[in-house]
Design a protein that fits this description.
The structure holds two protein chains of two kinds. Helices cover about 0% and strands about 60% of the residues of chain A. In chain A, the strands form two sheets. In chain A, strands 2, 4, 5, 9, 10 and 11 form a six-stranded mixed sheet that branches. Chain A is globular. In chain B, the strands form two sheets. In chain B, strands 2, 4, 5, 6, 9, 10 and 11 form a seven-stranded mixed sheet that branches. The radius of gyration of chain B is 14 Å and the shape is globular. Classes of the chains: A mainly beta, B mainly beta.
């Protein structure tokens, strides 16, 4: 059974820091991995999707990497800002299904 | 933002009553999903649809049913609500799936449901 773990569960950093969020999964038979952001009381916003054949994806200050063989992905946020404060979720799409399996998220707070 | 509207946004009801949540999309996407989000469990898939009248179960489907009579609408029904179904429910859509089509899922803003 695929399990997705995110560490740390919560993170508080000062503005301007570069930071890394971690996601690990137990079964490497995945189609893709997706990173989401969730603001309080809101739905999920898709940030980056990495296909299983890719090593990384970049969007602005965000860079996500994928090491499928070791079951790990990282989300790198450069020069963090208070507006980055949110919960970040990763999800893997299982091979041969239409289902996403989510981690429980990392709650990030960036203070001025 | 993807055109996804969930209704109602908030609902409080009593145990044993039927409840229907609606998800409406304006993107003409083929795939639609219902998730629930609970502390400590993250998001879990309840049911999903891969076309009009085509649905399948997710990992926590017991006590829920769904219907999709039109591309744009996906309904989630709790036939007889229980307190364990108190949760935040999210609808998501995706343009396509399959090994050669890695399309992201886009989410609505959720429905907060409380069963007393």
């Amino acid at each position: 059974k695929q399990e997705v773990t995110q560490i740390p569960a919560a993170l508080s950093v000062p503005e301007g820091e570069n930071l890394v969020l971690n996601c690990s999964f137990t079964d490497s038979a995945i189609y893709n991995l997706q990173w989401f952001r969730q603001d309080p009381g809101k739905g999920l916003t898709s940030l980056l999707l990495i296909q299983s054949s890719q090593r990384e994806q970049t969007s602005g200050r965000l860079n996500a990497s994928l090491d499928k063989s070791s079951g790990r992905s990282t989300l790198y946020i450069a020069a963090s800002q208070p507006g980055d404060s949110a919960t970040y979720l990763c999800a893997v799409r299982l091979y041969n299904t239409d289902k996403l399996i989510f981690g429980t998220g990392t709650r990030l707070q960036v203070f001025p | 933002d993807a055109g996804i509207t969930q209704s109602p946004r908030h609902k409080v009801t009593e145990t044993g009553t039927p409840v229907t949540l609606r998800c409406h999309q304006t993107e003409n996407h083929r795939y639609m999903y219902w998730y629930r989000q609970d502390p400590g469990h993250g998001l879990r898939l309840i049911h999903y649809s891969y076309g009009v009248k085509d649905t399948d179960k997710g990992e926590v489907s017991d006590g829920y049913s769904v219907s999709r009579s039109k591309t744009e609408d996906f309904l989630l029904t709790l036939e007889s609500a229980t307190s364990s179904q108190t949760s935040v429910y999210f609808c998501a859509i995706s343009e396509s799936q399959g090994p050669s089509q890695n399309q992201p899922q886009h989410f609505g803003d959720g429905t907060r449901l409380s069963i007393l």
